[in-house]
Amino acid sequence: MKKFFKIAGLIVGIVILGVAGVIAYVKLALPNVGDAPDLKVEVTPERVKRGEYLANHVNVCMDCHSTRDYTLFSAPLVPGTLGKGGELFDQKQGFPGIFTSKNITPAGIGNWTDGEIFCAITTGVSRDGHAFFPIMPYPYYGSMDEEDAKSIVAYLRTLQPIESKPADSKPDFPFNFIINTIPKKATPS
Q1: What percent of the chain is predicted at pLDDT more than 70?
Q2: Phi and psi for 86 in degrees, rounded to 5?
Q3: What are the backbone dihedrals phi and psi of residue 171, each rounded to the nearest 5 degrees, phi first?
Q4: Strand 88-89 to strand 170-171: parallel, antiparallel, or no bridges (unpaired)?
Q5: Tens digit of pLDDT for each residue in 50-63?
Q6: Backbone angles phi, psi at 88, to 5 degrees
């Protein structure tokens, strides 16, 4: 009987060690999408116009990264809030945590490189290495045309800077681990 408990204890110990190893890997080594590309986006009127069209009507970046007036039909954007962030997605809406859209005006991402912004759009990973919640559909943005992503970067550089520091996002357990497994390297088409 002692031998059985010894073997069972050894098996349980190995399983606990394996689970701890997987958890440590997911939390500390992921997301692994590589370094942000070293690029400088040329800001031209054509590229900014294309980026404005994409960010406002196709990728709808501004729908989440601006303030919306939910007292009106279709919750239009509040003028003067384009890109300031602060839209809340939480448990009341069925999300696994509290997620807040970030300030994407030059006041929020002005010290980011073009490559870091490009990487955030196409992989869902912030410049500090944390994964974004996929309500921002970066798994799809990662396969968009590279020129379109660059056009969005150029457009974001031209937004009116708005001082706004939205709260940090806080995913619930176990999603705080799962979120790190979602980002992948961009595969522009």
Answers
A1: 100
A2: 105, -5
A3: -70, 145
A4: unpaired
A5: 999 999 999 999 99
A6: -105, 130
Give the strand order in the sheet containing 97-100: 88-89, 97-100, 170-171
Structure tokens at 161: 């800077």
Beta-sheet pairing, 97-100 with 88-89:
antiparallel
The span from the CA of 69 to the CA of 78, in Å, is: 6
Helix, strand or coil for residue 77? Answer: strand
Dist CA 106 CA 5 (whole Å): 62
Confidence of residue 99 (pLDDT cuts 50, 70, 90): very high
Tokens 């073009």, residue located: 114
- The predicted pLDDT at position 5 comes to 85
- Rounded to whole angstroms, how far apart are CA atoms 132 and 119? 12
- What does the domain layout of the chain look like in residue ranges? 31-181
Q: Kindly state the average pLDDT of the residues 14-28.
A: 88
- Cα dist from 170 to 80, 88, 101, 102, whole Å: 27, 11, 12, 13
Separation of alpha carbons 88 and 102, rounded Å: 10
Helices (H), the chain: 2-28, 45-53, 61-64, 106-109, 114-123, 138-141, 146-157, 175-178
Instruction: Tell me the residue length of the chain.
Output: 189
Contact 36, 122 (CB under 8 A): no
